[in-house]
């Protein structure tokens, strides 16, 4: 009974979704027609990839995608590490540690990412002799790390005091308690929030194109500047980002299902 | 220190607590100049109205609460700011909570194995053997692969007792271990505690179960407003209470 209700709802949702999508496409096509925009979809594939004598040659958009994925993946790992370190400092017994964490958190959360990227690129990078890609990764990790740490703090603090007392009464150290009892439970609770933060990271990574990192967005801009295929290229770029974020969400969903036991 | 209740026999004193004071922000005097000595193998029951500070005293004994002043020595180790001493004491002192505090993300087996491996450095096989034996002893052997939320309250509490026993503690603290249980499950937990007392375990038990206190304990302490009102051998306590306040309390709970 439940499954039939579910399938009816699914079909209804699919129909609504299809109608909305159809409407949007129709609007765009109508609008473009009225503007006198000429579609040149046939020119688009070669910016993705070409075949030369049967050999696959990635186009600028695919190369940009690879850069975006690289930057995003490294930043994800770094942001998680920074976030964890920050939250542990924030919740530690050390006065200095707590204040360091607060200062980092507040300065990152209360300034625009674009300004942070410029600050790192124009001020810190020359001093520390950092490359563009390194600067981009650093900026993204620091930015997302701050948000990740707040998500983690919510997760850790949602674990009841009794769990800590259970650990302590058994003679576990603070580190052992975090690692084996508190963090595993917290992680399960914050996985959905961390996933949206990771999706944000992918989207925010487009901003690194402002310091001439040849990511997906930068490649798109270059192609549009050269060819005036404005609509086509931005549609494709948006679709690629969408594919990327949906893949990530699906992975996270799978992960959540592997840990069904949310306390 | 002539006002400190001494252990009643010549046996070795394992818990020494002298002039404990503890204030909670408020400020509420949770524990007010409380002293006790417990000898090895003794079962001490602490009773009193809610808010009398009995749980706080218990939690001070393994350092879950820090004391403002006073002195605690467990089996020769002083409980002070030294982290090593605190961990050493917690390894000697097992504790059972009102709300069980099992780890919900771990199976019963892993709940009991965890500290054995981390704290006692046992291999997984060694720990598992101990866990199996203990679960049989407390009567939940068939639940070894289950998770805590698949168990009844009584079963969870018995698993929690097994978890504490797995570290071979010298002392067991019971903080209202049956207060959160449905009435029909209280008996099975008390049975396990009774068996433990018969095995000679040193126990400090905060409880409202007067039947258990009468039957199992060697000594009873009655607390109110953070202070020890009366302390006596169990038989004397129930049959010949000295303080008027104690008599009143015993009348009320009857």
What's a concise summary of this model?
The complex is a heterodimer of chains A (263) and B (254). Chain A is 79% helix and 3% strand.
Strand-pairing-aware structural class of chain B: alpha/beta
Q: What percent strand of chain B?
A: 25-35%
Order of helices and strands of chain B: EEEHEEHEHHHEHEHEEHH
Average residue pLDDT of chain B: 92
In order across it, which strands form the biggest sheet of chain B? 6-7-8-3-9-10
Oligomeric category: heterodimer
Rounded mean pLDDT of chain A is: 92
Rg of chain A, rounded, reads: 23 Å
Number of helices of chain A: 10
Largest interface: A-B, 18 and 25 residues
Query: What summary fits the major beta sheet of chain A?
Result: 2 strands, antiparallel
Give the distance, in angstroms, between the N- and C-terminal Cα atoms of chain B.
35 Å
Throw out a few tags for this protein:
heterodimer; A: 263 residues; mainly alpha; 79% helix; B: alpha/beta; 6-stranded mixed β-sheet; 39% helix
Describe the structure.
- The complex is a heterodimer of chains A (263) and B (254).
- Chain A is mainly alpha-helical and 263 residues long.
- Chain A has helices at 2-35, 45-48, 60-90, 95-109, 113-128, 132-157, 161-169, 174-204, 216-227, 230-258, and strands at 49-52, 55-58.
- In chain A, strand 1 and strand 2 (55-58) form a beta hairpin.
- The mean pLDDT of chain A is 92.
- With 254 residues, chain B is an alpha/beta fold.
- Chain B is 39% helix and 25% strand.
- Chain B is built from nine helices and ten strands.
- In chain B, the strands form two sheets. In chain B, strands 6-7-8-3-9-10 form a six-stranded mixed beta sheet, with helices on both faces.
- In chain B, a hairpin with a 2-residue loop joins strand 9 and strand 10.
- Classes of the chains: A mainly alpha (263), B alpha/beta (254).
- Chains A and B meet through helix 7 and helix 8 of A and helix 2, strand 6 and helix 3 of B.
